[in-house]
């Protein structure tokens, strides 16, 4: 048995053609093709964003529970804050990580999480010591600024 790959526009034409034909014992594959074609389009996906706060939480500089509460109060979904439960956006926290899971069709942006993280750090007066860095496609990491000893060069001259 050979399978053909069909592009999405052609697939809809092909499905319309198959539904107009009668399924009988002479052609048992028609019902199978219809089920497979309809099953592919109804698949929903979600996107997960992770904010890793390992360094500041281990040093007891950042309270992850208050950070999670701040995010849940201020994340905008469909232009409204406090709209998380109705739109199936879930915020969970581990010991050092916060995960935001959202349906793919909502379009929750990673950039909004970075903006809110920076605002939280500014509110807690930690913005001068911590920065938000993208560690992968769907995750951010809070890191300390690297401070180098630049005063040694001035003392040598």
UniProtKB/TrEMBL annotation:
Pfam families: Ribosomal_L22e. It comes from the Eukaryota. Keywords: Ribonucleoprotein, Ribosomal protein. InterPro entries: Ribosomal_eL22, Ribosomal_eL22_sf. One of its GO terms (cellular component) is cytoplasm. Belongs to the eukaryotic ribosomal protein eL22 family. This is Large ribosomal subunit protein eL22.
